[in-house]
Design goal:
The complex is a heterodimer of chains A (294) and B (229). Chain A is α/β, with parallel strands linked by helices and 294 residues long. Chain A contains 11 helices and 11 strands. In chain A, strands 1, 2, 3, 4, 5, 6, 7, 8 and 9 form a 9-stranded mixed β-sheet that branches. In chain A, β5, α7 and β6 form a beta-alpha-beta unit. In chain A, 44% of the residues are buried. Chain B has 11 helices and no strands. The model of chain B has no long low-confidence stretch (mean pLDDT 89). Classes of the chains: A alpha/beta (294), B mainly alpha (229). The interface between A and B is medium-sized, with 33 and 36 residues.
Chain lengths: 294, 229
């Protein structure tokens, strides 16, 4: 029959295409495995968060560390929750994350051996310049969350179990609300990507300050609420337990933890600027009155 | 691993609301996209198969090369068009289900058009000529020809469905993977795997595979009849 031979031709064409594609992919995969294997052993894999990547900090910190120690690094970036899971499975050698309670638990559960505080940044509320709820200039994040929930205006959430997402959930809990509905956009994405979504949909959102400032020029959004006292975003490094994962690069990891908390590392953090503004501060710093948000 | 699979089955049989919402988004987006793309794609395929004009060869080659067009490039172009500062920015469509449907329709279009082209080209010209000589109108002759090659068309439609239901790149880029709105099966699997929440990912993977099997079984069934007649 007519359609029968046709179908065969279609299937045959598809088959050839697929076979070629598969061969190509296998070759590429084999090549990737071979070349990756060569540099794999000496490399330090740092599990870090979207906020450190999207603010541009990692681009400054990692080359400075590589220059100081000669150790090659690779950043594996995700939300804090995700990066902690990488750590639990031994997929990374060290963590640089921002959810202190989870990091302490990580060590307590035996996945890590040590946690050191590294720096702070802070969280702000960003939103459309038209600011339909007139939140601009307020310093009270919780009441802003209540207004957003009541008016059901668009609000973009990370929704990815990241440090920023956990902070947002704490604020909803403090407002005694559980947000749900078409206005609540749970994006499940990184800091920068979520800000792009907030921009397109002209939604309010909780953002880490550095990540927002880094791409502010491309956004039609602005900082509307800088809470008082500031909502501190506390970063720590956590060393993975080598007893649990013998293959990890523990020596290089220790060197990274030492370096980032040394005067050289801390200088790299405090001299990092976005538009002339310092974003990350030292945990012992007294010049910036950032208090721990409960 | 075994634990994750166990949990996945629990999610499936307990009718987990999140899981089925994701399946719903996927089905709605894919079917709407096919509905949107099929009429123009079939018309284009038919036109290319039956009309001689200069540049026809180029058109056919272009159409066929679009079959292997990377879906992320479709996503990128659509993103640039729909972003607030882009030419279609005032539609406010980026990161909505409509944007996803549009993207999947663009991805399905060449599959459907090429299938129609191949089907009609291979169909006996006598069918159309006979219909015309028996006094059929032009559109009636088109419908007669399309009806003759319905099994091949259906194969194209199922191919298109397979391509869009499992598509992740474009869906992620223009949909934004927003829970309940634009989170489809493949984008959800990608997110859950990244989060290390394997149970939900495995459960959704099963749904996707069952859907694919169902579609292929249906295709086989229809084509089996086609071959028998």
């Amino acid at each position: 029959m007519i359609e029968f031979s046709l179908k065969n031709k279609l299937i045959f064409d598809g088959y050839v295409l697929t076979t070629n594609a598969v061969m190509l992919m296998l070759t590429a995969a084999a090549w990737a495995v071979l070349t990756a294997g060569m540099s794999y052993a000496s490399e330090l894999r740092i599990g870090s968060t979207y906020t450190t990547q999207d603010s541009g900090l990692l681009e400054v910190l990692l080359p400075a560390f590589e220059k100081a120690t000669g150790i090659k690094t690779r950043a594996i970036v995700g939300g804090t929750g995700q990066v902690l899971k990488y750590g639990e499975r031994g997929d990374v050698d060290i963590l640089l994350t921002h959810s202190p309670a989870d990091e302490v638990r990580f060590v307590a559960n035996g996945y890590g051996t040590e946690r050191r505080e590294v720096m702070y940044s802070d969280f702000v509320m960003i939103g459309p310049k038209t600011d339909p709820l007139k939140l601009r200039g307020s310093t009270d994040m919780v009441s802003a969350f209540k207004k957003i929930n009541q008016a059901e205006v668009l609000f973009a959430s990370r929704g990815d179990d990241s440090g920023t997402h956990k902070m947002e959930l704490r604020l909803w809990a403090r407002a005694m609300l559980s947000p749900a509905g078409k206005w609540y956009l749970s994006t499940g994405q990184g800091m920068g990507q979520m800000l792009l979504i907030a921009n397109e949909r002209q939604a309010y959102a909780l953002s880490e300050r550095g990540s927002f400032l880094a791409i502010k020029k491309r956004l039609d959004l602005e900082v509307l609420i800088e809470p008082e006292p500031p909502l501190a975003n506390i970063y720590g490094v956590t060393l993975i337990n080598i007893a649990r994962h013998p293959h990890i690069n523990a020596a290089a990891a220790k060197q990274f933890a030492d370096w980032i908390t040394s005067s050289a590392g801390q200088l790299a953090i405090t001299t990092f600027r976005i538009d002339g503004k310092q974003i990350f501060f030292l945990p012992t710093s007294t010049s910036v009155p950032i208090k721990k948000a409960s | 691993m075994a634990d994750a699979i166990h949990q996945a089955f629990l999610l499936l049989i307990t009718g987990d609301a999140d899981l089925w919402r994701i399946v719903g988004v996927s089905l709605r987006v894919s079917l709407s996209a096919l509905l949107m793309a099929t009429p123009p794609a079939v018309l284009l395929g038919f036109f290319l198969a039956t009309t001689r004009f200069s540049g026809r060869r180029v058109a056919v080659i272009t159409l066929q090369s679009f079959l292997s067009f990377p879906t992320v490039v479709v996503g990128l172009v659509l993103y640039l068009a729909l972003t607030r500062s882009g030419p279609l920015g005032n539609l406010n469509m980026l990161f909505t289900q409509d944007a996803m449907i549009l993207g999947q329709a663009i991805i399905a279009f060449p599959v459907l058009a090429a299938a129609t082209l191949a089907a009609v080209q291979g169909a006996d010209r006598i069918v159309r000529e006979t219909a015309l000589s028996l006094g059929a109108t032009r559109s009636a002759a088109i419908l007669t020809t399309l009806f003759e090659v319905r099994f091949a068309l259906m194969a194209g439609l199922f191919n298109g469905f397979g391509r869009v239901i499992s598509e992740v790149g474009c869906a992620m880029m223009v949909g934004g993977n927003i829970a309940g709105l634009t989170r489809s099966i493949p984008t959800a699997i990608s997110l859950e795997t990244a989060k290390g929440e394997f149970a939900q990912g495995i459960a959704l993977g099963f749904v996707l595979i069952v859907l694919a099997l169902g579609v292929n079984a249906a295709l086989n069934f229809f084509q089996g009849e086609g071959g028998m007649k």
